[in-house]
C-alpha cells in the first residue's frame, strides 16, 4: 500500500503490517484514504480528529443552504387596485427572499361564468413581475380556482 505519514510525507509502497506498526508507534490510526487506487493509499492520522473535521464541514455546508419555500398569495377576480398593489408588494418581498410564489384566484358563485377576468388578472400579475420573476407554471383552472406558480429569477 502507498503510505503517507503523520507529517504528510509520502513513504512509498509499504507492507500493511509495517504501516500498522508505524501508526502504532506514532500513537495514531492507519486510515485508508482512497481504496480504489492502485495500490490503495493509506495515511497515518488521528481518526477522531478526522471525523470531527468532516462533521464540522458538513454542518457548515448545511448552514449555508437556503431552503426554497412556496408562499401562497390568494386573490379574487374582482380585487381592488389598492389590495392588488399590497399583494404585489408582498410578492416582491417573497422574490427578494428567494421564495417561489403560488398565486391562487378563487371563483365564487357567478364569478365562474367570467373566468376570462381571472385569467386577465393572472396575466397582469405575470406582466408586473416580469423583471423579478419567471413563470414556472402557467395559469390553469382547477375546479373553482385558477393558479399560477412564479419563481425568482
For the sheet with most strands, the description reads: 4 strands, mixed
Task: List segments where confidence is low: pLDDT < 50 over at least 5 consecutive residues.
Answer: none
Please state how the strands of the largest beta sheet are arranged side by side: 2-1-4-3
Residues in helices, as a percent range: 25-40%
Number of beta-strand segments = 8
Mean pLDDT: 91
Q: Report how far the terminal alpha carbons are from each other.
A: 51 Å
Report strand %. Answer: 25-35%
Estimate the global geometry from the Cα principal axes.
rod-shaped
Number of helices: 4
Helix/strand-derived category reads alpha/beta
Radius of gyration from CA coordinates:
30 Å
How do the helices and strands follow one another from N- to C-terminus? EEHEEHEHEHEE
Short synopsis of the structure:
The chain has 153 residues and is of the alpha/beta class.
Task: Describe what this molecule looks like in 3D.
This protein has 153 residues and is an alpha/beta fold. 39% of the residues lie in helices and 32% in strands. The chain has helices at residues 16-26, 47-64, 81-96, 115-128, and strands at residues 2-4, 10-13, 29-34, 41-45, 70-75, 100-106, 133-142, 145-152. It is rod-shaped, with a radius of gyration of 30 Å.
Element layout with pairings:
Layout: E1 2-4, E2 10-13, H1 16-26, E3 29-34, E4 41-45, H2 47-64, E5 70-75, H3 81-96, E6 100-106, H4 115-128, E7 133-142, E8 145-152
Parallel strand pairs: 1-4, 5-6
Antiparallel strand pairs: 1-2, 3-4, 6-8, 7-8
Amino acid at each position: 500500500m502507498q503510505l503517507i505519514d503523520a507529517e504528510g510525507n509520502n513513504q512509498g509502497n509499504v507492507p500493511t503490517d509495517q504501516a500498522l506498526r508505524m501508526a502504532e508507534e506514532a500513537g495514531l490510526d492507519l486510515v485508508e484514504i482512497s481504496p480504489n487506487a492502485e495500490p490503495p493509499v493509506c495515511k497515518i492520522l488521528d481518526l477522531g480528529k478526522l471525523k470531527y473535521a468532516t462533521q464540522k464541514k458538513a454542518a457548515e455546508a448545511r448552514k449555508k443552504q437556503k431552503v426554497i419555500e412556496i408562499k401562497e398569495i390568494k386573490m379574487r377576480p374582482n380585487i381592488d387596485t389598492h389590495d392588488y398593489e399590497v399583494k404585489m408588494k408582498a410578492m416582491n418581498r417573497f422574490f427578494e427572499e428567494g421564495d417561489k410564489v403560488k398565486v391562487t384566484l378563487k371563483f365564487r358563485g357567478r364569478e365562474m361564468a367570467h373566468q376570462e377576468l381571472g385569467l386577465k388578472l393572472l396575466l397582469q400579475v405575470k406582466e408586473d413581475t416580469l423583471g423579478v420573476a419567471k413563470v414556472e407554471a402557467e395559469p390553469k383552472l382547477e375546479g373553482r380556482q385558477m393558479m399560477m406558480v412564479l419563481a425568482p429569477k
